[in-house]
Every structure is written in structure tokens, then in C-alpha cells.
Amino acid sequence: MNYTEDQTQHIVDAYKAEASMKTVEKLAEELGKSTKSIIGKLSREGVYERAVYKNKSGTSPITKAEICLNIAENLGIEVESLVGLEKSPKGTLQTLELATGAQQNL
Q1: In a domain, 33, yes or no
Q2: Confidence bin at 102 (pLDDT 50/70/90)
């Protein structure tokens, strides 16, 4: 057994009190384990919350494929008719998405 029941309870309680990577690092150092081991244990206990990626502006990222799908919906066409559009620069796709969405709302 890697962790005793007391250690497991301590890890879970500490993480529930402050769910952060800093807490994981502190627990790893305190128990002489790796951070991956602590994360694994927290995952098995069902309490670990994976960090959600945010882009520079603080929003959740959207893929080019999703933007192309939105453009197709805004235009009322099948996304298959826009094959290759996802290879365009993301900024260009976002501008096109905004423009097509605005036209539909007129």
C-alpha cells in the first residue's frame, strides 16, 4: 500500500481545503512522494480537479473547427462546403464568424 488511511484522509482534506497545485506540491514534499503520485491518489479518491486551460485573454479556447462550424451555421450551409477553411489563420476565421453572425441578426 502506497498510502495509509490516515495519509489518504490528510491528502483529501488538505486538497478540499485549497484545491491548487501549490497544495499538491506541499503534500508531495510533506509525504516524500512525487506530485504525480499525489495527483493520482486524489484522482482515485475522486477529488482532483484538473486545471482548465485559459488563453491569454482569460477565456476558454475555441478551435478553428468550431469556428468554421459556427460560420457554416451562420450562413445556413453545411460545414462540408467549407472544406479547407479551417486552415486559415484563427484571427481571420474569428473576423469572418463575427461578420456572418452579425449579418444573420439583421
Answers
A1: yes
A2: low
pLDDT score for 1:
55
From residue 25, give the alpha-carbon distance in Å to each of 4, 7, 19, 43, 52.
Answer: 19, 15, 11, 15, 18
Residue ranges making up the domain that contains 21: 5-44
**Residues whose CB falls within 8 Å of the CB of residue 24, separated by 6 or more in sequence, listed in order:** 15, 35, 38, 39, 42
Nearest in space to 66 (alpha carbons), one of 32, 38, 42, 90: 90
Within-domain flag for 53: no
Q: What is the domain count for the chain? A: 2
Residue 21 lies in a domain: yes
67: exposed, middle or buried (Cβ count in 10 Å: 0-12, 13-18, 19+): buried
